Give the backbone structure.
Amino acid sequence: MNTIERRRLGEILKGLRGRRVAVFGDLMLDRYVWGSVERISPEAPVPVLEVRRESARFGGSANVAENVASLGGKAILVGAVGDDAAGRELLSLLAGRGVDASRVVTVPGRRTTTKTRLIAHSQQIVRADWEDAGEIGPPHDAAIHDGLRSAVDECDVLVVSDYGKGVVTRASLAVALSRARETGKLVCVDPKESHFPSYAGVTAITPNQKEAGNAVGIRITDDATLREVGWKLQRDLDAQCVVITRGEEGMTLFIRGGGEVHLPTVAREVFDVTGAGDTVVSALALSLAAGATMVEAAIVSNHAAGLVIREVGTASTTVDEIERSFTELGEADAGTRG
């Protein structure tokens, strides 16, 4: 059994405050249109959404930064937005959360990735995306690289939030990871399958079950294939830890020299898993920066994820909510070592 003693949990959660996290990745604006459906359109066999309200939230690496801020950390964001209304709105929202977005590059002519979800009775019925996902090239890539170097210099831990929207490239990853190695910084990655070879040597990588299987060409169908994939990824990347997130099955850690640890989910209700990976990598990185062991950090991030998937849409959680989650289970939660 792996547990966090109450005193130790308090130390870790207190240590999250003020930790500096450089967040590098693809920024997105998530819009939500909320309403109800009472009839079908006479124009086509589609539901008519009677709109009640609209809201905007953080998406992609912006949601990682929001999660860091919500947990008491200081987020230093590196990425790009378009010179458009969505980009300006996203930067304004980030400023309101105290996120340092001074290294976010504005790219004229590029659309800020925007996802608009129509929600009827708490159920998503359709999503519309606006984006330009091509790689960002000269001269804006040079500005991103400069921002990366300075952000890594200032941070306690680097998070790479790779959504495959053109900001995280092989060249920019090389800059970020090289600087992290030079300065001895921890690196946590929420990956994209096409970039797996570029993540070699990171501290922790947090693919979901599908991403992990695709990365090595083995579909995860049972415990045996899970172990095969997890250990192959760990060896191929020489990562300190591979954390495979498995939805309602929780998460499984493959730790260099430290064995295999399974953490069952602590979620009681699952409304929406959107953005759960952002929460996992944020809480994991902050906890490691606060001095937690890999297993301790994963236990904290497991509780954080269990809280956000109770909400519809992207969400974040707080230290107080995480403490309550542990209390609701009677004590600091546990995993089992394989």
The longest strand covers residues 27-40. The chain has a mean pLDDT of 90. The two ends are 10 Å apart (CA to CA).
